[in-house]
Structure formats: structure tokens, C-alpha cells
Amino acid sequence: MDVRSLGYVVIESTDPAKWLDYGTNILGLMVAPMMPDDGNVYLKMDERPFRFVITKGEQDRLQLCGWELADQETFEATKDSLKSVGVEFTEGSAELAQARQVRGLISLKDPAGNGLELYWGASLDYAKFVSPKGIAEFETGFNGDMGFGHAVLPAPNLQETHAFYRDVLGFGDTDYMHFKFSEDPNDPGMGLNFMHVNNPRHHSLALYQDQSPVGCIHLMVEVREDVDEVGYCLDRVNEAGIPVVSTLGRHTNDRMLSFYMATPTGFAMEFGTGGLQMDWEGYTPTVSTLPSLWGHKFQAPDGGH
């Protein structure tokens, strides 16, 4: 398979207006000008019509991640592969494809129960991104081909879920970490698999060996080559009284300089810059024993890496 990027997320919210305020006034995203006024909140960050959809619902949770495939041929081959290994999926209707601004999609769940959509033929609206907070550019690649960032998802059944993304969907391994939270030698700890798709981003997905009541450990957005924008966002977070889940720091494996904050949904948001862009030819996956070179003092157990 040829998964190209993490294209979008759909977030269910009991109060989408909170995400409208958070997305624009804290993250610096733009209200998507080309999307319909249908009661959902659509947030834009690049040439794509939207990257975040927030829908009104009965609970607060990450509903699904949308993963972009290379083309229709890959899309059809993906469906055949899923059928051959007994993975159930639902064909997206023409109305749903239109809502997602893609030419075709399917919906399914991974072995941990996380929702995902696999799609092809994403639209570009080329509407100029104008951040309400003056952010010049987010790092999403050429015409958004690196995706909006990354997602860290809960996977209590880590081995099974990791195998699904690796062996069924064709994600590649980037790095592995294992955390222990006590000095007890019998503490089994928790694993964390970092995985990449067919773009230079160090990881577009990570799977964390734990559960989450909101269906997500954290999401990440990255500003392009501007440390000050990270600082400006941190100031906005502090001024708004939003909890800082992790202090400013630089990660070991992807070199991202970032901090983590709470979101209206309850998972964390990593806001960073300077993440590595990789050449995957001949790459050997790593095992990291230290999550950060400096900083990143987590102040709640939910943030993940």
C-alpha cells in the first residue's frame, strides 16, 4: 500500500464553539472559507480545504483520522488487500466524499478500535492561509503532501495494532520506546511505536500501549522554521489559562522543539517546529531510551510523546 499522509482528523465535541475559539485564537488556524456552513467547525492551515473537522456530538473524543492514499489504483488495491485478510470496511457515500473533499474513501477501525478513513483524490482549494494570529506557515509539505502533523493513538493491544498498521496498511517503523513508571522490577511498562508513511515526516502515527477515554493521546501541528511562533503560542496558552501538559523541550528521535497543551476534548496538542525530515531509503528503525534531549517535563499522564 502507499499511504502518503495524515490528511485530516474528525473530532466529536459537545461544544464545537470551544474548538472554534481554541483553533483560531490559540493554535492560529483559520476558519475554512470554502467549507459549508453546516454546523461543523472546519479549520484550515494550508492549501487543503480543511485539516480539522469538529462535529457536534454527545461526547468529547477523537472520532477518526483520515489517511491519504496515492491514487485510485492504490485505493482499489487497498480494498482488495483488506478483504483478503478479513478486515471489514464501509464504502463512503458520494455525500461523505463530498463532505471530506475527496474522490473516494472507506471507513474502518484498527484492532484497538480507533476510527480511520482511507481516501484518495483530495481537493486543493488554494485559498490563501491567513492565520488570525499571524503565523506565516505550517509545515505540511508541497501542496500539503506531508499531512498536517501526527497523531498518537491509544493501543492497549499494542502488538496487534502495530502489526495492522505495518503489515496490512504498509506503515514503516521509525522508532520504539518503552516506558516504566515505577522502580518495581516487575513493572511491565508501556511501549510506544513511532511509524512513518510515504513522506519525509519522522512519524505521522505513534501507538501508545494504553487506553484513552477520548480516543487520542495527542495530536501535533508544526510551524515552519520559526521558534518564536512556538513561544508566541505558549504565551497565548498561559494568558488563556490553558493547562500546559508538558513544558518546552526538544525530543530525541524527531528533534522537534515543542510543548504540549490541553485541548477542549481532553487529549493533548503538541505545538512545535524543526522536526526532522527523513530519507527512508535504507533507513534502520531505532530504539530510543530517552524521550527528550531537554525539557518536556510532563505535568499530567495523558500527554504521551
Automatic annotation (TrEMBL):
Keywords annotated in UniProt: Aromatic hydrocarbons catabolism, Dioxygenase, Iron, Metal-binding, Oxidoreductase
UniProt cofactor(s): Fe(2+)
Residues spanning the signal sequence: none
CDD domains reported in the protein's UniProt record: BphC1-RGP6_C_like, BphC1-RGP6_N_like
Ranges of residues in domain VOC: 5-121, 147-274
TM segment ranges: none
Top EC group: oxidoreductase
EC number, as in UniProt: 1.13.11.25
Classification via Pfam families: BphC_D1 (PF22632), Glyoxalase (PF00903)
Gene Ontology molecular-function annotations: 3,4-dihydroxy-9,10-secoandrosta-1,3,5(10)-triene-9,17-dione 4,5-dioxygenase activity; ferrous iron binding
The organism's place on the tree of life at top rank: Bacteria
UniProt cross-references to SUPFAM superfamilies, sorted A to Z: Glyoxalase/Bleomycin resistance protein/Dihydroxybiphenyl dioxygenase
Record family assignment: Belongs to the extradiol ring-cleavage dioxygenase family.
Official protein name in the record: 3,4-dihydroxy-9,10-secoandrosta-1,3, 5(10)-triene-9,17-dione 4,5-dioxygenase
Organism: Litorivivens lipolytica
